[in-house]
Design brief:
about 170 residues; mainly alpha; about 75% helix
């Protein structure tokens, strides 16, 4: 897939933002919990790689809502995994609302990429939305593409942020 062909320069603005934000947080001399910063960093880099646009470009209100929905949905999925066959019994309204919000967000980006493909052609779409277009070419089903984007987003954000937190 084309994500593997991205150069490291794609991370530079995100690293600069992370360092700047951490410097501001530490300026008061207080202890700083790095984990929330790493979650923001990995969400922004992962969305840029997957969707062609960083999460950090969103307005703060939308960014905070997405982050909160993502956290709630991820927590709920973790609970359901532990429940195994009893997973359907864990289905509170907050969890359903969070899942719906995250799914709508991923759908927005997938639809945006597909509209772009229809407007300018596949070749240009592959340049701008390479990962989404690669998935679409392989699967041929827009709903499956959205679902795969969500799976990869979860893996790309949480595991990387946890690794960074643990390492530091």
């Amino acid at each position: 897939m084309r994500v593997q062909q991205q150069h490291l320069g794609i991370f530079s603005p995100h690293v600069d933002e992370l360092v700047s934000t951490l410097a501001q947080a530490a300026a008061g001399g207080e202890i700083v919990d790095l984990q929330p910063f790493f979650y923001e960093f990995t969400l922004s880099t992962t969305t840029e790689l997957l969707f062609g646009e960083p999460y950090s470009n969103m307005p703060k209100k939308e960014r905070d809502a997405l982050r909160d929905n993502f956290d709630c949905a991820t927590f709920g999925v973790g609970v359901r995994v532990r429940l195994a066959e009893l997973a359907p019994i864990y289905n509170p309204p907050k969890f359903r609302k969070a899942c719906k919000g995250v799914r709508e967000w991923a759908t927005f980006f997938a639809d945006k990429a597909f509209r772009y493909k229809d407007e300018v052609g596949e070749e240009k779409a592959f340049e701008k939305y390479s990962f989404i277009m690669d998935l679409w070419k392989e699967m041929g089903d827009e709903a499956l593409v959205r679902d795969q984007l969500l799976h990869i987003l979860m893996a790309g954000r949480d595991s990387t942020a946890a690794l960074l937190s643990w390492t530091w």
